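Record passed on underneath.
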Amino acid sequence: MKKTAVLFLAVALLASQNVLASKAETGEESAGDAAVAAEAVEGEALAEDGVEETQETAPQEIQAAEESVENTLAAYAEPAATDRVAYGGYEDKNGVITEWVLTADWTLIYFGDGSASGPINYPEIRQKLRKVILEEGIKGIDSGAFSGYENLTEIVIPESVDYIEADAFANCTSLKKIDIPNGVAKIGEGAFGDCQGLVEVNLPNSLTEIGDDAFYGCTSLEKINFPNGVIKIGGGAFLNCESLTRLIIPSSVSEIGGMAFTGCDRLQEVIFQGGCSCSS
């Protein structure tokens, strides 16, 4: 087992023990907390099969991780939410370490040089997560990272992010606004599909492609401004976006997929800056 795996299992164990100890004092320990602790203990047992060198160096690495977590909390957490609920890390698909902290107000903070792959899949996090902050340095948002987080209302994406993959925020029905940073060239297929509460989307000048079904079913989306430079709008990209009333398609667009705007029942005007204008 790699040192990084042992490190984060140990960090997760310490976090769960700290939380449970605190809750035990107030009599607030729940069955869910016990399950998290059991998973952490199981992880510790698995980690014991590692190499002796790893076991010798793990304490120093844990201390470094603790310091990194504390620095992140100090920079991002609200004063009333400095108590961390959980923290840990993982290797992303490119083998780069990404760390995360979950604060008491259900804000999830990512830091490091890897990608955001979503939190450890505890049902309670999925049900209660309210906000996600990606610290500068995070490179991308992986497929399905936050799909189905129905109470997520806010996501902060830094300039370092240059890709958003398929279904990254699909079915995040409470998400109201998204600012996509300059540097992102493509929005993946279904990335914001069925985000029924999404009202505002700001697209970057770097964008060249909007994937198939990227914003399908965003029934509250009132307007979308396509930047000059967009080349492709995928099939079904804005399918059933029934609140859209007007579109301006820049001259850079050379391909619009089938059913891209089907079901946009309130759409009254589409202007093609290349010269063609139509209205209904």
